[in-house]
Design goal:
With about 150 residues, the chain is mostly helical. Helix content is about 65%, strand content about 0%. The longest helix is centred in the middle third of the chain and has 30 residues. This is MALL protein.
Length: about 150
């Protein structure tokens, strides 16, 4: 009589550490998020923050998101997660919340772009604000992709 073995317990995929972070989706999105977010901050700062109420929020979101994402990237590179599944939840919640914040910042930056069309130094500031709006929406998209792709690993 043949004995029937119970099915092997499926082990969840290991969280990447070291250089494998750059080869694994969604963790490979972290570096482009940081780079695009840095461009948002640089481009808005280059406009001398013509609309402080609108662009102040954009600069806050872009700078704080870059710093926290950089810390998250370093923690993955150095293996601080120790393959704990709670890091997936933390990562997903952070990127989901940041996507919402970045969407609000991108909309405010688009509004600042519209207002800069007729202001002083209009051609230069309009172009800088347009580029900042573009990168803000790209960064929002990257954060959304990262947040949702964790579930499809």
């Amino acid at each position: 009589m043949a004995s029937v073995c119970p099915p092997a317990a499926s082990t969840p995929p290991a969280l990447p550490s070291g250089p494998a972070v750059f080869k694994t989706i969604p963790y490979a999105f972290i570096l482009p998020e940081i780079l695009c977010g840095t461009w948002v901050w640089i481009l808005v700062a280059a406009t001398s923050v013509s609309f402080p109420l609108l662009q102040g929020w954009v600069m806050y979101v872009s700078l704080s998101s870059c710093l926290v994402s950089l810390l998250l990237l370093l923690s993955y590179l150095l293996g601080f997660h120790k393959n704990n599944e709670n890091w997936k939840v933390l990562d997903s919640l952070y990127h989901g919340a940041t996507a919402i914040l970045y969407l609000s910042a991108a909309v405010l930056q688009a509004n600042a772009t519209i207002h800069s069309e007729s202001g002083p130094n209009s051609p230069l500031y309009y172009q800088l604000n347009s580029a900042a709006s573009f990168f803000a929406f790209i960064t929002t998209f990257l954060y959304v992709l990262h947040a949702f792709s964790i579930y499809y690993q």
